[in-house]
Write a structure and sequence with these properties.
Blueprint lengths: L1 E5 L3 H11 L3 E5 L12 E3 L13 E5 L1 E6 L2 E6 L5 E4 L1 H15 L1 E3 L6 E4 L2 E4 L2 E3 L1 E4 L6 H5 L7 E10 L7 E5 L8 E6 L4 E8 L3 H11 L9 E6 L7 E2 L2 E3 L15 H17 L6 H7 L1 H23 L3 H13 L1 H7 L15 H9 L6
Helix pairs in contact: 1-2, 1-5
The protein binds flavin-adenine dinucleotide.
């Protein structure tokens, strides 16, 4: 089958790599050079879809310290819960794998036309198209999808003191971020430091760097992150994936692991039902599996994010005290990708009281 893939970010490249073994793939990328925009932290679940080369894994993390003002909760497992990779090398590696099994074109796709049994991208024709062109997807725009709810992430690398090399630190003060700010240790002395914000990202990032007393750091990188729950990603002979489809966990801003899982589900379907390319067939056969395995989780991430966004610093202090009392259960059942696996299990009397007190914020 002739497949066009738009965007050679981590998910477009992953899709090209996955589909390229049995199909005729053309991978379009507008940029001349692959540049990563993410922190490169993934739950170990990613290893079910893609195993990055060992030499690009920089750290293995066992949990997190949640912080606000003078309160903190330490959630540390004995097991490795997440890996931290060199994100630039991770994206380049995926891209190089993709290029081995596809035709790469350095071309910006401006126009998509769904014509009968083919899809046209600029003046190229395909049997099927995968749109992985990121948060400001041109394909989405051409297909009439409304603009997504965009947050902005900024990040740098610096020498810095942290609590424990095996723990990520998350800060919830509103002066640093209206999402969260982070320190991700890379080795004994260096860490990735970043924030995600809806507004005033640069100001809040500079507040955070000042608070950490960081004067020298590497170049600041960053990008847009679609936050929300979006279901409109299936079209006639075309499926959007990753940021283009808004498939990002609204609690963490991470999109790569579940994005890879979405690609995997599509790959499995088209391997077994090669002719399931029409919107009708994809809605019948792809959407329900996606909803059950991924959509349900993304919806829950979004519900949790909506609730968290309504909390003030005082509420977060209470939440962190609660996390302290629940740390054993969070370690046992917590999962950064699949909230449905643990939400019910961490409910106790105090959590219920907290939710009751903040009941109106749930809606
Ligand atoms: C600061 C920050 C930290 C993050 N940290 C993490 C993390 O630790 N873990 C995690 O899982 N996620 C993280 N994310 C989210 C993650 O970066 C995205 O979910 C992921 O990059 C999505 O991949 P993608 O391939 O769908 O889109 P993108 O990475 O946005 O790639 C889209 C590609 O398409 C190309 N393109 C766009 N339009 C066109 C066009 N018209 N024609 C041709 N090419 C086009 C772009 O140039 C780009 O290369 C982070 C995001 C930010 C901003």
């Amino acid at each position: 089958m002739k497949i066009g893939i738009v965007g050679a970010g981590p998910l477009g490249s992953f899709a090209a790599w996955k589909f390229g073994k049995n199909n005729d793939i053309t991978l379009f990328e507008q940029k001349k050079k692959i540049t990563s925009k993410h922190s490169g932290i993934f739950s170990t679940d990613i290893l079910n879809y893609y195993k990055p080369p060992k030499n690009i894994i920089l750290n293995k993390v066992k949990g997190a310290v949640l912080k606000i003002n003078n309160k903190e909760a330490i959630i540390k497992d004995k097991k490795i819960r997440a890996i931290v990779v060199n994100s630039q090398k991770f994206d380049e590696n995926l891209f190089n794998e993709a290029k081995k099994v596809s035709l790469y074109k350095n071309e910006k796709i401006e126009k998509v036309d769904l014509i009968g049994k083919s899809v046209r991208l600029n003046n190229h024709s395909f049997d099927f198209v995968i749109g992985a062109d990121g948060p400001f997807s041109k394909l989405s725009e051409n297909l009439g999808i409304r603009q997504k709810n965009i947050f902005y992430g900024l990040e740098t690398i610096a020498d810095c003191n942290f609590f424990d090399k095996k723990l990520v630190e998350l800060y919830f003060e509103k002066k640093f971020s209206d999402f969260f700010a982070w320190i991700i240790p890379l080795n004994d002395s260096e860490a990735k430091i970043g924030v995600i914000c809806k507004t005033h990202a640069q100001k809040k990032f500079s507040n955070f760097l000042k608070f950490l007393q960081i004067k020298k750091h590497r170049k600041i990188i960053g990008g847009a992150i679609p936050i929300g729950f979006y279901e409109n990603f299936i079209f006639e002979r075309l499926v959007l994936i990753g940021d283009a489809a808004g498939q990002v966990k609204s609690t963490t801003g991470g999109g790569i692991t579940l994005g890879m899982k979405s690609v995997n589900l599509l790959f499995k379907l088209l391997k077994n039902q090669q002719y399931c390319l029409s919107k009708k067939c994809l809605v019948k056969n792809y959407y329900p599996v996606w909803k059950k395995e991924i959509g349900k989780e993304l919806w829950l991430h979004w519900r949790i994010r909506k609730f968290l966004n309504k909390l003030n610093d005082r509420d977060y202090e209470e939440l962190i005290e609660l996390a302290n009392t629940l740390s054993k259960r969070i370690i046992k059942f917590g999962d950064m990708d699949y909230p449905s696996k643990f939400l019910i299990k961490v409910l106790d009397l105090n959590t219920c009281l907290f939710l009751l007190k903040n009941f109106w914020k749930l809606f």
